[in-house]
Each structure stands twice: as structure tokens, then as C-alpha cells.
Amino acid sequence: MPIELIPPEALPEETAPEETEITGETPAGEPAAGEPAAEEPVRRGRGRPAGSKNKAKATPTPRAAPQPVATPQPVATPKPAPVEPPPPKSVERRPRVQRKPREYVEEPESPPETPRSYRARVQREYREIRVSQHAERRDHFSSLLNRFMH
């Protein structure tokens, strides 16, 4: 049975919905499906809406890996003795750099002493006296302790 094709111009206007679907035109006076009629679109704020819950991410399915070809297993043979790994190499350390002892150079006291330099000199001398006094006390008590212990 042959199929007869009718051109779209020959069809009445009510029965030709294919044309509006193809061209995307809508009949006058009717809003398109999915569009609100004469309303502005609702603006949404940035970020996730309040009250929404975390959704688990769908893990992508890995591509199917090619199946390994089954090879015939050889006949069981005795295993060789395990080989021990060689001992770790000794780590050579660089020799320590010897530091030079500090050398204090006394400056000639030709300019007059300022209040700041005077205070620094007095504090330095006081520190030296305190250190020597402490060393003397330590030596004295160490000798007393040695007398009692021996």
C-alpha cells in the first residue's frame, strides 16, 4: 500500500502542529511551555540553597579493563632460596667545619665615653665579676663535697 505525502500548505491551520515545533514559533496569545507568562525570572543567590543536603557524588565507572589472557601455569618447581638484600651502604658524613674562635678587638679609647658606652662597659665588667664569683663558689662547694664523699 503506497503512502501519499501531503504538502503542509494543503493542511488546514489547526492540524499543522509540526511546523510550530520545527520553527520554534508559538501561536499568538499563548505562552511557550516552560516559560512563565509575563513574569520576571526569580533571581537566586550564590551558593547552595538553605536547607539543602549533601549529595553523594557519583563515582565515575572505570572503563572496562581488558581481561588478562589465561596462560597455562607451569608445573610446580622447587623455589630457590630467598636472596638476602645487600647490607646498606655506610653513610659518609662530611667533617665538621671548625669555627674560628671569636677575637675581640679593643678599640682605642680616643673619643670621649658616651653615657651609653659607659653603661655598656659597667654592665660588662659587672657580668665578668659575677661569673668569676660564681665559679669560685662552685669550686669551693665542689671541693667540700669531694671531702665528704672520699
Characterize the quaternary organization of these chains. Answer: single chain
Biggest beta sheet summary: none
Total number of helices: 2
Distance between the termini: 132 Å
* Secondary structure: number of strands: 0
| C-alpha Rg (nearest Å) | 50 Å
Show unreliable segments: none
Order of helices and strands: HH
Strand content: under 5%
Write down the overall mean pLDDT: 77
Question: Mind explaining what this structure looks like?
Answer:
This protein is 28% helix and 0% strand. With 150 residues, the chain is mainly alpha-helical. The longest helix is centred in the last third of the chain and has 35 residues. The protein is elongated. The mean pLDDT is 77.
Helix and strand layout, with pairings?
Elements: H1 17-23, H2 115-149
Write a brief structural summary:
By secondary structure, this protein is an all-alpha fold.
